[in-house]
């Protein structure tokens, strides 16, 4: 313990005492994130609050000299344990004080520190007529740095792409306090390996971001939302394919199954049909005239498939429908005390087959399964609900998760579409990459971080 105390004191000397906190209160507060299941975690030796790039460089220099594990943290809104410290001799690095940004309107780019809140940034750039599309469900409090580390997604990513598509460049502090700058604030840059894209989604395992250059696009002038209600799951998959091959590219295409609908109506009723088997929320955006024609065409396509379609006639009606989707997380907490939430991905063409098979897995293990998500890009949130006080039921849920991942990979899908790997999905990473690919990933990690001090224990078991 004395050795750890000495190391913390050296950090305080390098950064200043007000930036390094080691009271038990702060250490406990920063020892967890939003992961809903029990995971491996430790109380860190200290919490560090850098305020600029120089602070981060000093931090990494000391940590690399003293062998102090570094656990970077945005807002702690992640769901796979990515920000959770796993060693008592490590420090959590909170970027909440690095929250400044500038916008270059003429070039439609922004330079952002990692602690900037996603929603606050989006609001600001939209007032300038610009648009930053990535919208994870935590966007009102998650940070840009955390979004970049996890390569976050959200409903709008169907049309606009995930966070990676908007990161033009990064300034990153890696081993021994060295700084690398990758990418540039231009739209076309093909010089060398694309290290920027490699760092996006690396979950803090390769280095610490100190500056992020983002691409912005013009803000859409209008958007409209429609609700479609279905009596069977198979038709939902067909509807998604029909819409996306019709020449219309929705900005969002969200799915809720019957149990998700009932959970929301029990939590905060918005008038969704409780007897429906499933529903789709469809949003289109663009020029006002085009939006009206496209939402009308979407209604026609869905009606021909037997769905009941309702178009929101005002922004208030549209927000009411989207509120139901946003309320799903807390609504599920009312059904059971335990929840495993996985964000698997299927190629869209397999959705009509895959959706019923997910139900079969739930039936096999005698579990309540609630499925919702970004069905337009095949990204489904599969929620297995159980009673925390019933260990046998919890074990059944854990076995069912293995089959859920096996099902996704059997259709050439992915074990995660936006939550990342973190702690909870480490054992499944090798399933997706195979032995050779997995060894390459570990080799990249060793090149950037030979001492394994950046977020150790994440991604790799």
Describe what you observe in this structure.
The chain is built from 15 helices and 18 strands. A seven-stranded antiparallel β-sheet has the order 15-12-14-13-17-18-16, sandwiched between helices. 38% of the residues lie in helices and 21% in strands. With 461 residues, it is an alpha+beta fold. The longest helix is centred in the C-terminal third of the chain and has 23 residues, at 426-448. It is globular, with a radius of gyration of 23 Å. α1 runs antiparallel to α3 (53-66), α8 packs antiparallel against α13 (351-364) and α13 packs antiparallel against α14 (391-410).
Could you tell me how far the N terminus lies from the C terminus, measured between alpha carbons in angstroms? 26 Å
Strand count, sense and barrel status of the largest sheet are: 7 strands, antiparallel
What general outline do the C-alpha atoms trace?
Answer: globular
Structural class assignment:
alpha+beta
**Oligomerization state of this entry?**
single chain
Note poorly predicted spans.
none
Helix content: 25-40%
Strand order within the widest beta sheet: 15-12-14-13-17-18-16
Question: How many helices?
Answer: 15
Rg calculated over all Cα atoms: 23 Å
- Total DSSP E strands: 18
Mean pLDDT: 95
Q: In percent, how much strand structure appears in the residues? A: 15-25%
